[in-house]
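User: I'm putting together a teaching handout on how multi-component assemblies are represented. Below are the sequence lines for each component of a complex, exactly as they appear in our records. Could you produce the 3D structure of the whole assembly as structure tokens, so the students can see both representations side by side? Please keep the chain order the same as the input.
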Amino acid sequence: MGAIEFHFEDFEPGRVFTLASAEVTAEAIIAFAAEFDPQPMHLSEEAGKASILGGLSASGWHTASLFMRMMYDGWLARSSSEGSPGIEFMEWKKPVLAGDTLSGRSTVIEARALRSKPGIGLVKFLHEVENQHGTVVMRGENPIMMRLRTPSNVMAEVQA
Amino acid sequence: MRLIELAPPGEKVVTGTMLFTPDDIIRFAKQFDPQPFHVDAQAAKDYVFGALCASGWHTCAGWMKTFLSYWSAESTRLISEGHVPPKLGPSPGFQKLQWLRPVYAGDSITYSVTMVDSRPLATRPGTFINRTINEGANQDGQLVMRYEGSVLEFE
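Assistant: Of course. Below is the structure of the complete assembly, with chains in the same order as your input.
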């Protein structure tokens, strides 16, 4: 990671961070599925068309992993991220098909400093990923641990 | 047959084990999650996790991989015994995913699935939604990952 631009204190509720866009190729869909999710609709156009997904479609875990990369390239690499304890929910709302271009955003829902980990705060985001038609294909909420710019910042405590 | 007949609620089924080598961890992370603690063993020492560890998405993908391997063998077994295996479809999502402990380089994660319940979808006759608890534990028996999964099933 390069220079850190966003610390815990910069994640004010309501602030929106843009995800990088990503193209989803047939080759990438098939490569991911062959390793982790070898179901027919993720491996061939024909099987995808025959399924309720309507075409060669990415594994949901592939879409989630791509979202991670879009977030990293979009803003996470410039943040003081220390990783995440989990995902509160994630919805795969529409199929992600070969040839789609994904984009999206992370919106800050809340931020609170962690008493259990001095110098670290937890920032909760709503993430939305959409395709080139503006249709949301995946959305979810998750908290990410962020280092404080000023570890002794008592104001961070009251942002909870 | 229906999944609920095959997998009674509360009964944990072990689906398989996956070894997380440093190379696999770094290869996945370079593609999808290149944070320092997932791609650089030296740099990882300066972060909360303290050592090279797998992207949480890699840990999740491992659950899917072992489940499908298990399901393929289970379907073959059912057919050989004269049954029609449950027809599973896509998943609409998951919730309460917890990465409880880092998956460090060299860890072997054993995955499992436990049926919670199954109910018909009002909007789509002949389709059911199954909810499951999906888990992964390391070689010391410590849970590293847990989430509530869901999968569609067709009559």
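A couple of points students might notice: Chain A has one domain: 8-24+59-158. Chain A has four helices and five strands.
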